[in-house]
Design goal:
DNA polymerase, domain 1, 321 residues, mainly alpha, 14 helices, DNA binding, 4 strands, hpI Integrase, Chain A, 54% helix
Length: 321
């Protein structure tokens, strides 16, 4: 056991997590969740070799976790981690089959994504504290949030962006901007590459930030920081936590009646584009969703928006007969 009373992971699982990090570009958050899920599997299997796990073990372990009160979402994520590991490891270990391959995950109740209205988004991005600042941090924040909303990025994709594509001995860009082509290129979940347009206001804000960026940049910095599009106050690549705290502060100053976390800007992008364009496939492509059913959640959000507009505008909508 480790100091945190967690079982040590077998070498095979460590190799798989390393593979996901280096070759599939999984985020730190996802890798940490998978690590915990694999520790859970090792614990349930009582430290015995994972090569000995069979289909019945997987079903039994999920049943035990369900009885302990684990949610359907948590169980589904664990099963996905176990299935992915065995898909990679079973052939190497000469196991007869992936023991988690045909185990069905519990159904998850899909909640609607939270998005800002168009007016709320305008209030956020047009807040005086954001539009009037000319210091490097202020210009960075404006460019950062304009790009976030303009292109519907994930937080992990935003912080991993570089000034341009860079390939060095020990570093290759996961994402970068191309202002000449008015595009941002990102590496999304599962190593899926996509390109998304950059809107006019985001481009203008990015140009202003790039002029101010040298004021925060370190004279000598490792490749991962030297190439970073967005920098923190100390000249290192900006962290997700800093983005979150800056956005929370901005939302409070802008007077928004709801907590705004970074993913809300991505949801707002999807909802607003879908309201205007009504092109589900295009939104799916821009968001990088592997399954269109994920994107279809935004059609329900769009219907809620229409229903509220109807209720507030129709003279007989709220009247009882």
């Amino acid at each position: 056991m480790t100091e945190a009373n967690e079982p040590l992971l077998p070498e095979s699982t460590v190799l798989w997590l390393t593979h996901l990090e280096r070759n599939r570009r999984y985020s730190v958050h996802t890798l940490e969740a998978y690590r915990r899920d694999l520790q859970q599997l090792v614990r349930l299997h009582e430290g015995k070799p994972l090569e000995q796990i069979v289909n019945g073990n997987i079903r039994h372990y999920l049943g035990r976790l369900h009885a302990q009160g684990h949610s359907a979402r948590s169980l589904a994520r664990m099963l996905a981690a176990w299935r992915g590991f065995f898909k990679w490891w079973a052939p190497q270990a000469k196991m007869p089959a992936n023991p988690a391959a045909d185990v069905r995950a519990p159904k998850i109740k899909r909640s609607l994504p939270k998005a800002l209205s168009v007016d709320q988004t305008q209030a956020l991005l047009d807040a005086t504290v954001l539009t009037t600042r000319t210091d490097p941090v202020g210009l960075r924040d404006r460019a950062m949030f304009e790009l976030f909303y303009s292109s519907g990025l994930r937080l992990s994709e935003l912080v991993s962006l570089d000034l341009q594509y860079t390939q060095a001995k020990e570093y290759t860009s996961a994402g970068w901007i191309d202002l000449a082509e008015q595009e941002v290129h990102v590496l999304g979940k599962g190593g899926k590459r996509r390109s998304v347009p950059i809107g006019a206001q985001a481009r203008t804000s990015l140009v202003q930030w790039l002029e101010a960026r040298p004021a925060l940049a370190l004279t000598q910095a490792p490749e991962t920081d030297a190439t970073a599009l967005f920098l923190g106050a100390r000249g290192r690549r900006i962290s997700p936590r800093v983005v979150q705290s800056q956005l929370t502060r901005l939302a409070l100053v802008a007077g928004l009646p709801t907590h705004v976390h970074p993913h809300v800007l991505r949801h707002s992008f999807a909802s607003h584009v879908l309201q205007s364009a009504q092109d589900l496939r295009a939104v799916q492509e821009m968001l990088g969703h592997a399954n269109i059913s994920t994107t279809q959640l935004y059609t329900r959000l769009d219907f809620q928006h229409l229903a509220r507009a109807y209720d507030s505008a129709h003279p007989r909508a709220g009247r009882k007969s």
